[in-house]
Design a protein that fits this description.
Helix content: 40-55%
Radius of gyration: 25 Å
Number of helices: 10
Order of helices and strands: HHEHHEEEHEHHHHH
Distance between the termini: 62 Å
Oligomer: single chain
Structural class: alpha+beta
Length: 279
């Protein structure tokens, strides 16, 4: 029986490192896939999307869940907590709660992640945070590697703080850029919009972002941004966004977002694209 090195030479395959498997792991294709999954988690416990784990082995998310139960692979749900105050409450939607997220009070009570509920609780003096579920943490063996999990949590927190700081800096007090806007009939399957009105020349301090923009195409574009981002960005910030950037830049950012189905922070992605295009 040739060795692995000899087989690689015969078949013209480059020899690379891999997790070592036992003879029993090679009895069948499912056992081999299960062993590869086990060795990855054993070697490197951490956070993994189930979709990525499935694609790595060529199986579905449901099959990964089955492997986790049979091996067994242990998991713990992970969350990101963001303080909610009168400045950050605008990130919450009005109509449909954010999926996989809840509002949590200091006493531990939970509420749907809606802006109306958060505003009422803040008015009552409650201390709130938005608790969002992210990908789970996996490990192999009876003892959970606490140091590895704590490191992951710290990295998540730092990443979340960077996103919050970046978005607050970009969206707050956006200046108005005067430009003539044509009707917004785009490849995003929108119907043509009515004839554009004159761009408002009111100074930024006098604009009431809570009211519809006087420029009809700009207001329509703001509504498009608001709906495309699943209402994760407030309508107020969407109006600020469309008055800062050109119509073509905003539409291009939305197109790029539509081409990427695995973006988790849709608002951060759009703002980043616009900032890069504006340099």
């Amino acid at each position: 029986m040739p060795t692995n090195d000899e087989l690689c030479i015969i078949l013209g395959v480059k020899l690379t490192g891999s997790d070592s498997l036992e003879q029993s792991d090679l009895a069948s294709a499912p056992k081999t896939r299960m062993a590869l999954h086990r060795e990855l988690i054993k070697r490197r416990p951490g956070q993994y999307p189930r979709g990525w784990l499935g694609r790595r082995l060529g199986v579905s998310k449901r099959t990964i869940a089955t492997y986790n139960r049979l091996i067994p692979i242990h998991s713990r749900a992970m969350f990101i907590e963001t303080p909610i105050n009168w400045k950050t409450v605008e990130r919450l939607p009005f109509d449909e709660p954010i999926k996989g997220a809840v509002l949590v009070t200091q006493a531990g009570k939970r509420y749907p992640a809606l802006r109306t509920i958060a505003s009422r609780l803040l008015a009552q003096g409650e201390v709130l945070s938005l608790k969002e579920q992210t990908v789970s943490f996996y490990w192999y063996g009876d003892m959970e590697p606490l140091l590895a999990r704590l490191q992951v949590q710290q990295e998540m927190q730092v990443h979340q703080e960077r996103i919050e700081t970046f978005m607050a800096h970009q969206i707050r007090e956006m200046p108005v850029i005067q430009h003539n806007s044509a009707s917004i009939a785009t490849s995003l399957f929108l119907e043509p919009i009515v004839k554009p009105s004159r761009v408002s020349k009111e100074p930024l301090s006098r604009l009431d972002w809570r009211k519809p923009l006087k420029n009809t195409p700009q207001e329509a574009l703001a509504q498009l941004v608001y709906e495309t981002l699943d209402k994760q960005m407030s309508l107020v910030n969407a109006r600020r966004l469309v008055t800062k950037y050109r119509e073509s830049q905003v539409l291009n950012a939305l197109k790029l977002l539509g081409q990427r189905s695995q973006i988790k922070n849709r608002t951060g992605f759009v703002v980043t694209i616009l900032c890069s295009a504006h340099l």
